[in-house]
Every structure is written in C-alpha cells, then in structure tokens.
Amino acid sequence: MAEMVSSDQIGGVLEAGILKPGKGMDAAEKKIEELNPDELKDYVRQLLAAYEGISEQIMKEKEKYISSGKGRAELEPAYSAAMATLYHVAMIFHPLSTYGVYLLQRARDLRMDFEEVCGPFTLSITEENLNYFTSVLSPDTAEDVKAGKLNALGAMRSGKKGVYGVGALAYYLEKDATGKELILRIKWLYVDEDYREREVAGSLLSEVMYLAKKYDAAAITADISLSSEWSEVICFWLDKWHFQFTTGLAPENVFDIPGGLSPKVIEKMPQTGSYEAVKDKDFVNIYTRYLKKNGYDGYLLRNDLPEGYIDKKASCYFGDSVSPKAMILSHVLPSGLRRVEYMDARENERRVVRQKLLYAFFYSVAYINKKNQRVMMEVNEPDMYPFFDKALTNPEGDLIYEGLLLPPDSSEDLTEEDVQDFLNE
C-alpha cells in the first residue's frame, strides 16, 4: 500500500463541502503503515461516502447547470472532486488490483459522462489539437508526438477565458528485452503551475493505466532525471500510485561532436558513406525498403512524416548505398539536439560493422557542422561501451530514477467484495 494522501491534496473534495475534518482526516496526515485498521476503515469509508455525496449532487444539478448555459464552469469542480476521490481510494490499495481497476473504470465512466455534455476533459493529443498543448509540452516532445514517435494524452480544464490544455503525458509502447512482454513507458509528464494539486496528473495517469490494461502491458515505467528540480516531487507522487524506484543511468547517451572536419577524412572511410548527395525521394525509398526488410514497423514508415525529417546529410550506410548492410538514421530536434532514430546491421559481425558505421556518422556530423553538435543515442549493448569510451571523450549518461509499476501480487489483488468485507469487519 502507498502513502496516504494529505488533506491539502484532496482539496477538490474539501471544497465541495463533502469530506469533513475529523477522525478520517486526522488519519490522512499519516502513512498507511502507521494506521491501525479502524483508522484505515474510517478514512476509506469517508472517501467513499464523499464520492457518493458528490455524485448525487452532480446528478441533481447537472440539468440545471446545462440549461443555464454555465455547464462546464459549474460542473467541472464537482466532477473533478468525484474522480479524485476514486483515485485516492485506488491508491490506498493498488490501482492495478481488481478493486483498483474497478474504481478507475468508475472514474473513467464519470469523466465520459462529463465529456458528453461539457466537452473534452482528458483526450488523446493529435496533430489536429496539438496547438492546445504547446504550453505543457517541450518543443522536442511536441515534435515526437506530431511525428508519431510518442503517443500523448492531454488534460483540458476551464479557465477565466475559456478551456485550456493544462497538462500532458507522453508515452510509448515497446517489447521488453525478451521480445515477449509489452511495456508502457512514460516519457513526459507536466501540469501547468496554476492547475497543480487538482488531480490533473491523476486523470492522465489513470488513463495510462486503463491503456496498459487494454494492451495487456506487463508493466508501466517512468524515468525521472535526477537533475530535474521536480524529480523528488514526481517520485513522491508516483510512489503513491505504487511505483517502485531504483537509480540508474539513462539508456540515452548525450555527447559533443566537434565541428569543422575536413571532407578528406570521410573520403578515406572504407565501405561507408552518407546520403547527402542522394535525391530526397530516392533516400526515403532506400531507407523505407531497408527498414521493412529488417522487420521494422515503427513511426519512420509513416507516409505523413514531415519532409526532411530524417537528415540525409548525417544518415549513413555501410556497404552499398542502395542496398546497405547497415544503416544509421538521424534527425535534428527543435532544441538543436541531433538524435539517432535508428541504427542496425544485417551483418554477422554486428559489433565491427556498427563501429565502422558510427565512425562514418561521427565524421559526417563533424563535417556538416562548423560548431560542436550535441548528439543523443541509445547505447544499450554492453559490448559497445568500450568503443564509445574510446571514440568519445565526453559521453554523458544522465542519472535517473527508474520508476516501475508492476501488477499487484496475490496479497494486494483485492476485489470489491474483499474491500467490503474489510470495511464491515
């Protein structure tokens, strides 16, 4: 079980006048482990009673609010408070337990009821609505969403001048190292400062958990950089949702490649080259054919990728340029950071081939840039570490908190009946 939420975090419920300070709220200032069974029962009962009270209030007043033309502004706080209450109960037990999933589904049903009459509350971010969320997405993340590299969810809430995008969560799905289990990886989570402690992030994370169950993901991960000023706050909040944390190195390495290299160095590289001189259409056809042949089925094969998304000047091959044995593709993000989007080899000697290919890539980047270029790429194969240590003088691996949410074990996987039996003891 996670830590109990504090009374100020449950502000929406208190504002609704449903949850009264008392024995239950005294318990709210403690950790779950510090509560005796009676205190825990009182607190859970009070939360569930708060939910029922708010729900009744919503149903009674909904038609009146709608007919008055003030539907969203009046109804949003009550709906938010009802959903927040369900989130908190789910967190007390386990959000992915049978009972937790039941509560999150009730919250989702409530959200959909709100959206039916008042418009978007939590939605998928697409190219069509991306402009609503530019203030809560970094430029690099927004571009990844637009390109289809990342999926994203957005939260919309009422403000003084209308309805705004006030929070965003970006994620992607991938197979684990065994290729058998699907993992949902959270890459971005941000809420506008004016809307924090209103369960905006909770509504986004709740939807992610629904998607994880829908796609039968084995786990949800969230990596938080230790250099972020918000790292401790985010970890503390995710801990309430039963994420477990360890420290480690981010798989993406960032390093500088000095600029101003002479083209004569590139000319001396055997069996390698860049696609700078190849026509744009031919280049797209070459790498599309190569990716399909290698079994790749990701976003780089989208027909609507922005023109020039893959920078052919610093995308390289090993072997024949038209039918390469290995290929590396790179892209420059809005921040100026160059990211390796794809690297693979079809040769048996993959390590040797990759080293030659990477040297060609480094030289190409150094040639086309007069100044230093920041480059990011994943290095997740241990046999490549010595090469990077030798080839680069300043590789940086960001220290991170590695957050992991696994399904509950048998002792935590409570049903609604189990919880009712506990409350009635």
Question: Your description of this structure?
Answer:
The two termini are 19 Å apart. Helix 3 (37-68) packs antiparallel against helix 4 (71-92), helix 4 runs antiparallel to helix 5 (98-118) and helix 5 (98-118) packs across helix 7 (200-214). The chain has 2 domains: 7-218 and 407-424, no CATH class; 259-371, Aminopeptidase. The protein is built from 13 helices and 12 strands. A hairpin with a 5-residue loop joins strand 9 and strand 10 (338-345). It has a 12-stranded mixed β-sheet with strand order 1-2-3-4-5-12-6-11-10-9-8-7. By secondary structure, the protein is of the alpha+beta class. Residues 1-29 have low confidence and may be disordered.
Which characteristics define this entry?
425 residues; alpha+beta; 2 domains; 12-stranded mixed sheet; 41% helix
Report strand %: 15-25%
Give the strand tally.
12
Question: How many helices?
Answer: 13
Lateral arrangement of strands in the main beta sheet: 1-2-3-4-5-12-6-11-10-9-8-7
Return the average pLDDT rounded to an integer. Answer: 83
H/E order of the elements? HHHHHEHEEEHEHEHEHEEEHEHEH
Q: Which range best describes the helical content: under 10%, 10-25%, 25-40%, 40-55%, 55-70% or over 70%?
A: 40-55%
Radius of gyration: 25 Å
Q: What is the general shape?
A: elongated
How many strands, what sense, and barrel or not for the largest sheet? 12 strands, mixed
Structural class, judged by helices and strands? alpha+beta
Distance between the amino and carboxyl termini:
19 Å
What is the domain total for the residues?
2
Low-confidence stretches: 1-29
